[in-house]
Amino acid sequence: MKKPLTLLAATLLCVSCAPAANTTPAPPAASSQPTASTPVSLSANSGPQAPGGTIPATIGITWDQASKDQAVDVAENAMTDFARPTVEEKQWANDLSRWLTPQATADYSAVDPANIPASRVTGPATLSVDEANGFGVMAAVPTNAGTYTVQLLRTGKDAPWKVNRLTPPSS
User: Fold this and answer.
1) How far is CA 14 from the centre of its chain?
2) What is the CA radius of gyration of the chain?
């Protein structure tokens, strides 16, 4: 009687350790997609999209002198706060963060200001304005270590300009 009991125990042990069967259903067979017999149009009566109309280049934000002046001021002020390699790290980060986008604040939070080669701004910022983009602009800011490129962004016409990136001179 011991032999059948031992055999039964061994069988149960093996069954309990065996992997379960795959119960995941097989993916459906690939079906061919029907092809359209006529061109697709999302307009009523199959007419062209916005006939005779144009989308404003800046999607509602036009460049004016005030926008340009504000962008120049932010670029110069941000670069002035950035180019201070002798300032204590916490103070440097706090001063700079007021000019930065949230992403830039995170990106620059680990920067050691002692590693920044520029220590002062040496002239006014100049903008490279893309008239088709009222949400962003590039500024060139001269420093004693060369000209930095500063990318500025805003979320709307009345929103403040924020620095997204400060790129050191390429040379």
Assistant:
1) 54
2) 32
| CA distance linking residue 87 with residue 95, whole number of Å | 10
85-92 long-range Cβ contacts below 8 angstroms, 24+ apart: 85/113, 85/114, 85/115, 85/116, 85/117, 85/118, 85/119, 86/113, 86/114, 86/119, 87/113, 89/113
In this prediction the pTM is 0.66
DSSP string covering 46-99, please? GPPSSTT----TTTT----HHHHHHHHHHHHHHHHHHS-TTS-HHHHHHHHHTT
147-167: pLDDT as tens digits = 999 999 999 888 999 999 999
CA–CA distance, 154 with 62 (Å, rounded to integer): 13
Spatial contact of 113 and 87, defined as CB atoms under 8 Å apart: yes
Closest of 123, 13, 20 to residue 72, by C-alpha: 123
Do 129 and 68 contact (CB within 8 A), yes or no? yes
Q: Which H helix or E strand runs over 3?
A: helix 2-17
- What's the rounded Cα separation, in Å, for the pair 96 and 165? 12
